[in-house]
Each structure stands twice: as structure tokens, then as C-alpha cells.
Amino acid sequence: MVSIPRLGGPPPVTATARALASPRGASPARPSARHDLPGGWALLRQRLSRLMLMSIALLIVGVVGLFQVLQTTRIAATGYDVSALEREQSALDADIRLLEAQIAAHSNLEQLREQATKRLGMVPAERQVHVSVDTPAPAIIPLPRRYVPEPERREPPSIAWWEHVQARIPGLH
To answer: Which end of the chain has fewer CB atoms at under 10 Å, N or C?
Structure first.
């Protein structure tokens, strides 16, 4: 048998040379640059190539990045919804103030009496009639918002750090 020497590396080691190089009673050493891995990991590492490991790592990085983009998009959309609701609330508050001003302008007793006599031709009553009502007064008297005290706004209770983490993971809250 003719052996062809390999270029750029050590000469091939035959079984006879291995047996002569090892001490008596010891098992022949394996020529391997890899470290021995426990259990079935060596077999798994042999089967998985570096390209496959890199592709799995890139896939994991891509999935994590996708989750971050989805969470950021969701937060931005919620922020837009909140700002739209705040604008709507301020517009409704302005409408309420305008209506309250109109009510206050029309509730001037002298102005009402003047319009009743001139425009509608009303006259003061000649005799008074008293009517008794058996229905109780309502429990809540409707008043303009400026006369009703607003309830205190309380800060929401602080949540633990792990609840922040749990809220960031989709599907867990």
C-alpha cells in the first residue's frame, strides 16, 4: 500500500504508530482538537454544523427584535389613542363652559322679566296659587360643573418590578 503524504499538515498516523507511542496498558490517545463533551452532546455537536447554529442564533435575534417592534408599535398606538381622547375631553370641557356661560347669561332675572313683558307681552300675576307636591326632591341636584367639587384624583398604586416585566411579555397580562 502506497501512502501519499498530505500537504500542509502532520503526516498521517497509523494504528501501529499509535500503539507504539502509547504506554503499555493505556488506551491509545485520540488525535482530536475538540474537547470531550459530556454525554450525547458530542454527537449533537457533530450533527449540527456551525451554519445551522448561526442560523438558529439569527432566528432567535430576529424573533426578539420582532417582539420589540410589536411592543413599540402597540405603545405608540396607545399613546395616540390617549392623546386623541385627551383632546376630545378638552373640547367637551370647552363646550360645557360655553353652555354654562349661556345659562348664566340667560338667568339674569331683570333681563328675563324685560323680555317677558316686551317680547312676549306677559304681565305680573294678579293672584298667587299655592300647589303642594307629594313627590320628594331628587337626591342629586343637577348643577353646573363649576359648582360641584371634583373628587380627588389618586395616583394609581405602584406595581412591582416583576409586574413591569410581565406586562412587557405579550399574552401574559
So the answer is: N
